[in-house]
Structures are given as C-alpha cells and as structure tokens.
C-alpha cells in the first residue's frame, strides 16, 4: 500500500456571479514511502492547490469544494476534521513553501519558530527544545546554530531562511514532506545547495517527498516519479527516465524543448510553447492543451482524451502522442 | 536604547519652544482679552487699560514673551487671571481626573476593540463582522455628549446602577494624596473610596470610549485581515500549531503595529481633556476648565495647560515608538 494514495482529487472555486473554476480536476497519484514524486507544470496548472488541499490548508469557506480522496495510511486527509488535521500537520505531513522570507514570521526569532513545532508535537520545552533546535539547524547546514536561534528572519540570508524552514518541516521526522517550489525564490547556486540538502534528508530519513516545481532541472535531479499537470489534470505520468528520454505528450515535449541546453547547435532556436496557460479549452470539450498544440488533430476537440497507460507504466492523456523515439527500459 | 530616549527627550525642547511662540502669538491675537472677561461689556476704556497694565499686557509682546520664558525656566507657570490661583496648582488638581478618565476609556476601548476587531476579521462576512463594522460606524457618528446623556439617563437616573456626576461621593471623606482618587484610595487602603471613585469613572469612561473603540475595532480588523493573507500564517498552520499560538504569536503580534500607533494618538487626544463628557457628568478634569479659560482669555492657564499637555502628548508617542521596537525587531532603535 502506498504511503499516500490520491484518487480523483478535485478542487473547485466558485464565487457568486463568477464562473466556477476547476483548479484541480480529477488528479490521481501515489507516493510510496521514501519516494520522491514530482508534480510539474506551469503556474496555474493546479499544483499548489493540490498541495494545499492535501494539507487541509485551503480556505474553509463557501465556494471551495474539494472532492476525491487522499488516503494517508488509514486516514483520508480530505475528510479529516480540522482538529485531527492539526495533529497530522507538522508531525506526519510537513510542508516547505516557496518564498522563505515571507513564509517566516518577521517578528519572532528563528529559535521560537523552530521550537514551537517541537513543543506542539513532541512535547519538548525549555532547554530540551533549544538543544533539539540547535541540532536541527545544524543538520540543515546552518552554521553557528545557537547564535542563529536568537536571530530574526531578516538577519538571515535567503538560503539560510529556506534551511530554517526546512528544519521546521523535518523537526518531527514526518513521513511525507511537500515542497512547493522550494528553490524558486533563490539564487541558482543556493538552489543547488537546497536541493542537495533535500536529497540528503530524504535519503537519510526515508521521508517521502512531493516536489512541486515548474523546473524540469529540479525534476531530473531529484524525482523518482513525475506527474505533469496541465489545466488541473495529470497529462503525463511516468518514472523519471522514460519521461525525459521519451516524453509522449506534446506538452511535456514542449516543456523539455523549452529548456536551453549547452549542447544544442549554435544559432538553434529555443523551442517555445505557443500561447499561454490561459488559452485552454475546458476539458469536457476536448484536450485543454489543444489550442496550443502543434500536433493537434481533429480528434483532439470534442471529447476529452483519457489517461492511457502503456506497457512501461508510462501514462499519458493524448490522442496523437509524440512517436516513441527510443526503447527505454523503465 | 537609552540614547534613543534621551535624544527624543532633547527633541522635546525645540518642539516646546516653537509651540510656546505660536501659542503666545495666537492667544494674544484672539479678539478681546482678559479685561473683557473681567469687566464684561460695560467697562470704560480707562478701566480696561488699568487692568491690562496690571496684568502687564500693555507692554510689547516680545517683553511679555521674555518674562513668560523667564518664569517658565523656573518652572513657574504664573497665576490664573480668573481664579487667582497658581496655574500649577489648578493643573495638579484637575489633570489626575482627566488621566483617570482617559485610562478608563482606553482600557474599555482596547479591551473590547481588539478582540472584536480580531473576531470580525477571522469571521469575515459573518453577522458578527457586519455588526461590528456597522456598530463602529455608529460609534463614530453618534455625538459623544448625546451618548453621555443617554447613558446617564438610563443607567444612572432610571436604573440607579451608577452615580450621575462627580468623581467621588464627598460624604466618604477620602484622604487626598495624589488627586488620582482611585490611586489615593488604594494607597491609603480606603477601599470604599477607591471603589467609589472607580464607580464614578464607568459611565463617563464608556461615553468617552465610544469613538476610540470604533476606531480600534476598524483598524484591528483591517490589520488582522492583512496579516491573515501573509505566507507566514500559512506556515504556522502547516506546522499544526494550536489556534491560540497562531493567534497570539503569528497574527496579533504582526497586526499590532498600526493598532499601537492609533492607540497612542487616541490616548494623547483624550489627555487634552473631554469637555463634553466632563460637562455632562460634572466630572472635574481639565476639559471644562480649559474651555472656561478660553472664554475668559486666561492667558497663563492656557499657556501652561497646553504646554504641559503637549509634553504628555510627546511622551505618549515616545512610548508608542518605544513599543514598536518591542513588537518588531526590524524597527529596533539604537
């Protein structure tokens, strides 16, 4: 049984007088213990909403409807009441956010922001909590941790802040870690360090990681499995190697083609996907990517394509997929 | 930190100096003078001139100002023209009442305003939210003296729950030390006197609190709403923290800065006296006395009172600036 089994997750936002938005539309994926799973896509494809839904952090108000199930062990994260969710969050499932500066409370010392998790879930207080916090900061590579505990977020560099946030997230050795674009707000050199740290933590502790990103470089370096999202649906899902070697969906192919490569010929044009995420066809009317697709055929419009899985457990949602270029054992 | 306080206190000197010049000119520019207040309409020109000469008002304004400053430096504020008593004595007798009233009103306004504003923001769009937003609008709109009269009529004259006027029942015969009646009662252990003085503060305190309360509710609501959309609140939630920790450590602490600023300004404003409330409840503070002094053109009282009020205003705001640095490390002062 997988650690987390998300089935048919859907999130809709509706406001009076406005069109209902299906931010996430029947997303299914599974995460095994200790595995790194990527959720990839452009802004607005529903990847962050997916993570917030799993954490139970979507605003609880009229107009926000969540459907499907997300079995985490015996509990369905989508059906759990707020009270029990509070016990799960930070202890069993923890999250790392995009912008480390705005994600840290500016008026509370780092130390307290770390120890409050320890106090809440592990009952550590006073000197014991402080010691553990020093240990945690040390583990995420923050030098001189006992001094840093007294400092405020604005006194730390961007990389240090993200390290501190990671320390808070791994404080209770969660079984599942969700990282929502953890490197987007950082310098490239720092990005590499943070990814290396995450990789290390996952390897050492056996924590499973859901890596949410738009950066295929991150996926290539970290993920075991990849789910590509478009307009709220999974459009391609495979293990890392077959996905990179042999992308079947034109959108995935486009994403890969739009990454600049050092080994491409001089003067060769970078491939860009036409249009923007806003040019979508509503799924019921066909493939949402059809308006931007170079391989569009008649069958793309009219009926939504189903997610089909080939013999290599490589699934894609396309009626006219890219032709197989190489035979890759998965 | 000490350097900061000293620097701010030194800044008080030019402020007060400028204020004294402005006040001096402004007061003497007002039509009429103390002689009109003393003689009324019937005084002859000679009598007026005589009084002006006695008060030293016939001399050039620069000379008058020079003499005022000379006395000021010796901390002598002069004598009231209308009561013939020392301005300092008048002030020390009345200001404690105003302070007690201000403190009462602000305790009510803060104690009710911050929780109400917080709840309104957390339950945005709910009935409570609409009620507190609408109610605060009414609070701002209703004239204070009207509210004061209604409170007095209902709770004092009809229900007899609270005394209708004064600062303390004179039949108690309380001992006076500081003229802060509640404090005096506590210091002398005359509990009944302290309680009675406190009882006298409730109704005028509520009347005076209405506008500050409304403002605090609104500013708290707006500030909390802003903080609620911050990423660090979501981080706090993602850690599974309890509602209480999230509220006090992550939301209110960050929402506090604008609230504290407004509290400082409101407190400073209330300290300059509440003429209407004091009048309705026959409460002897500085408000009614200042009003009287303006109509009598009682220059020494006006100069002295306004200068001292200005000092308190600056001190309250110094306290506010100081509290910023306690709330937010990013504005920590040197």
TrEMBL record, chain A:
Protein name in the entry: Dipeptide/oligopeptide/nickel ABC transporter ATP-binding protein
Stored PROSITE patterns: ABC_TRANSPORTER_1, ABC_TRANSPORTER_2
Source organism: Actinoplanes couchii
Protein family: Belongs to the ABC transporter superfamily.
Lineage top rank: taxon: Bacteria
The keyword ATP-binding is assigned to this record: yes
InterPro entries: AAA+_ATPase, ABC_Ni/Peptide_Import, ABC_transporter-like_ATP-bd, ABC_transporter-like_CS, Oligopep_ABC_C, P-loop_NTPase
Topological category with respect to the lipid bilayer: Peripheral membrane protein
Molecular-function GO terms, alphabetical: ATP binding
Keyword field: ATP-binding, Cell membrane, Membrane, Nucleotide-binding, Transport
Location in or out of the cell: Cell membrane
Domain ABC transporter, residue spans: 6-256
From TrEMBL, chain B:
Membrane topology: Multi-pass membrane protein
Gene3D superfamilies: MetI-like (1.10.3720.10)
Key word Transmembrane helix present: yes
Domain ABC transmembrane type-1: 95-324
Pfam family for this entry, one: BPD_transp_1_N
TM region positions: 9-27, 101-121, 133-155, 197-217, 257-290, 302-327
Chief place where the protein resides: membrane
Annotated PANTHER family: DIPEPTIDE TRANSPORT SYSTEM PERMEASE PROTEIN DPPB-RELATED
Record's protein name: Peptide ABC transporter permease
Source organism (scientific name): Actinoplanes couchii
Source taxonomy: Bacteria, Bacillati, Actinomycetota, Actinomycetes, Micromonosporales
């Amino acid at each position: 049984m997988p650690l987390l089994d998300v089935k048919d997750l859907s999130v809709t936002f509706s406001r009076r007088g406005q069109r209902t938005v299906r931010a996430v539309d029947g997303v299914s994926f599974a995460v095994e213990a200790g595995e790194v799973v990527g959720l990839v896509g452009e802004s607005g494809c529903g990847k962050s909403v997916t993570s917030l839904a799993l954490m139970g952090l979507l605003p609880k108000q009229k107009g926000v409807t969540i459907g499907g199930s997300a079995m985490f062990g015996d509990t369905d994260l989508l059906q759990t009441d707020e009270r029990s969710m509070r016990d799960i969050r930070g202890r069993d499932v923890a999250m790392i956010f995009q912008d480390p500066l705005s994600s840290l409370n500016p008026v509370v010392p780092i130390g307290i922001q770390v120890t409050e998790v320890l106090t809440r879930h592990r009952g550590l207080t006073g000197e014991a909590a402080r010691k553990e916090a020093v240990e945690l900061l040390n583990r995420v590579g923050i030098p001189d941790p006992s001094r840093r505990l007294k400092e405020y977020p604005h006194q730390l560099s961007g990389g240090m802040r993200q390290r501190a946030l990671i320390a808070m997230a791994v404080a209770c050795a969660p079984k599942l870690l969700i990282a929502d674009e953890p490197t987007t707000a950082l310098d490239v050199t720092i990005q590499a360090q943070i990814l290396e740290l995450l990789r290390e933590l996952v390897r050492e502790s056996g924590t499973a990681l859901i890596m949410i990103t738009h950066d295929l470089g991150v996926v290539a370096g970290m993920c075991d499995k990849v789910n590509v999202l478009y307009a709220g649906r999974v459009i391609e899902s495979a293990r890392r190697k077959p996905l990179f070697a042999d992308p079947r969906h034109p959108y995935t192919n486009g994403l890969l083609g739009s990454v600049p490569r050092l080994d491409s010929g001089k003067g060769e044009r970078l491939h860009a996907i036409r249009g923007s995420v806003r040019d979508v066809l509503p799924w019921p009317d066909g493939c949402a990517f059809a308006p931007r697709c170079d391989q569009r055929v008649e069958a793309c419009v009219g009926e939504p394509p189903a997610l089909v899985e080939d013999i290599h457990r490589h699934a894609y949602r396309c009626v006219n997929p890219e032709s197989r270029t190489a035979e890759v054992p998965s | 930190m000490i350097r900061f306080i000293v620097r701010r206190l030194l800044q008080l000197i030019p402020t007060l100096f400028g204020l004294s010049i402005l006040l001096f000119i402004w007061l003497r520019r007002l039509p009429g003078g103390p002689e009109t207040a003393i003689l009324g309409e019937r005084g002859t020109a000679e009598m007026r001139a005589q009084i002006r000469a006695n008060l030293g008002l016939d001399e050039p304004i620069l000379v008058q100002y020079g003499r005022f400053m000379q006395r000021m430096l010796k901390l002598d504020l002069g004598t009231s023209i209308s009561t013939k008593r020392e301005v300092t004595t008048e002030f020390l007798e009345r200001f404690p009442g105003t302070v007690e009233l201000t403190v009462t009103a602000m305790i009510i306004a803060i104690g009710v305003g911050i929780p109400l504003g917080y709840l309104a923001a957390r339950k945005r769009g709910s009935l409570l939210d609409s009620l507190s937003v609408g109610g605060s609008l009414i609070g701002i709109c209703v004239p204070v003296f009207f509210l004061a009269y209604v409170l007095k009529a209902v709770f004092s004259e009809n229900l007899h729950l609270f005394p209708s006027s004064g600062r303390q029942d004179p039949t108690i015969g309380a001992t006076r030390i500081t003229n802060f009646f509640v404090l005096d009662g506590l210091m002398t252990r005359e509990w009944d006197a302290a309680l009675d003085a406190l009882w006298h503060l409730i109704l005028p305190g509520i009347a005076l609190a209405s506008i500050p309360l409304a403002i605090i509710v609104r500013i708290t609501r707006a500030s909390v709403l802003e903080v609620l959309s911050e990423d660090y609140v979501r981080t706090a939630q993602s850690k599974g923290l309890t509602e209480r920790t999230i509220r006090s450590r992550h939301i209110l602490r960050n929402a506090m800065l604008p609230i504290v600023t407004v509290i400082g300004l409101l407190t400073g404003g209330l300290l300059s006296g509440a003429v209407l409330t004091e009048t309705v409840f026959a409460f002897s503070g500085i408000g009614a006395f200042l009003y009287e002094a303006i109509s009598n053109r009682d220059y020494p009282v006006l100069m002295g009172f306004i200068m001292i009020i200005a000092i308190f205003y600056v001190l309250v705001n110094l306290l506010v600036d100081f509290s910023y640095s306690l709330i937010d490390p990013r504005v920590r002062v040197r």
